[in-house]
Input
Amino acid sequence: MSAPNMAFNRIQRELAEVAKASDAEKGIVSLEAKDGRLDHLTGVIKGPPSSPYEGGTYVLDIKIPPEYPFKPPEVKFATKVWHPNVSSVTGAICLDILRTNWAAAMTLRTVMISIQALLGSPVADDPQDAVVASQFKTNRSLFDSTAKYWATTYADAPSEVPEMKEKVAQMVAMGFNESDVRDTLSWSGWDVAKALEKLAPE
Amino acid sequence: MDDTPSTSRMDDVNMDQDDPDVHAPSTSSSAFGQAETGKGEKDGEKPKENLFECNICLDSPNDPVVSLCGHLFCWPCLHGWLEMRPEGHQTCPVCKAAISREKAIPLFGRHSKGEDPRNKAVPPRPQAQRTEQTRHANFNHNPDFTPFGFGGGNNGFHMTVGFGAFPFTFFAQTFGLLEAAPGHAQQGLVSKIFLWVAIILIFALIFIDL
Output
């Protein structure tokens, strides 16, 4: 079983390299093996500056296939993100280097930097989440505040979006589950009537 | 086995230098600097290692090869990468330039051992390319004079025969005088085809005469 060995050796080198490098200012917070397993890692990146994600801390779930580095790592957001290229439901990321454009010389460090860059510059023409992407194209300001609201709620970003918080509180008071309310309101463009219709169809 | 096989080979050359890593390929000045700072870190860190790491396993390369775009890999690593890609769509893992098995050049350091990499589980790294000096194609013979059937020094066999020459070529072929160059199976096939054509023509001539 030489292939997994190679993957593990490389992951160990990459972990050491990330620990050694001063990437903190570039937005990589940490990269750690989950429960000491080298085929399942957790990466943490910062939301890029001057984006709705600024100040947020995003956790990435990284799975290493046995064929690594000949095959790309499987990376998804463990933190919920409102972004055209990230599924608002599963956290799956649409990024070419994680699929066809992967190259064996790329590392988890460069992948994390690329994902951070993707947060800063969404590509709406190649969407992962159609709802988010169409909002990004048609109503940029609503997109920005939704992304900011999600960053505040899920990624500990410091900024506040009071009007959205209010709408959520209003519907939670009606007896709905809070995270369902957030999702549904976001998907229906913060139209309370529409969201109510979806949550309680009668 | 010995962990540092190169040390014994180095002893007679570098009697006064106790660092076996001095033979790492580098400029004389940096090698000198390494010799000075390298004392006492024979086994541990090699200060220069990040310059010559395989771009795939990130380790010091084993059976090193370099791509035409200048990127260094272990041959087993690069081979593994090429295997994952369909032929014709193989790109350099670093810069995505077109790359292929034929375009990888093996590197042999001064003290690289004469071991045959083919003994390993991975296919051998590609052979080094030694292009022969170009020679003039018709150096040895006059291109204007092509004796029947024997013509074309470079191509081995030219079908420059007229009717009159048939019996001659026929016999020449039959007795192996026009044997195609060894290894040129295709030419052997071609001459067999011509042999049959010649036989048919001879019969045709005979019957026409009758």
About this structure: DSSP finds five helices and three strands in chain B. The beta strands of chain B are 64-66, 72-74, 105-106. The CA atoms of residues 6 and 111 of chain B lie 7 Å apart. The longest helix of chain B spans residues 185-209.
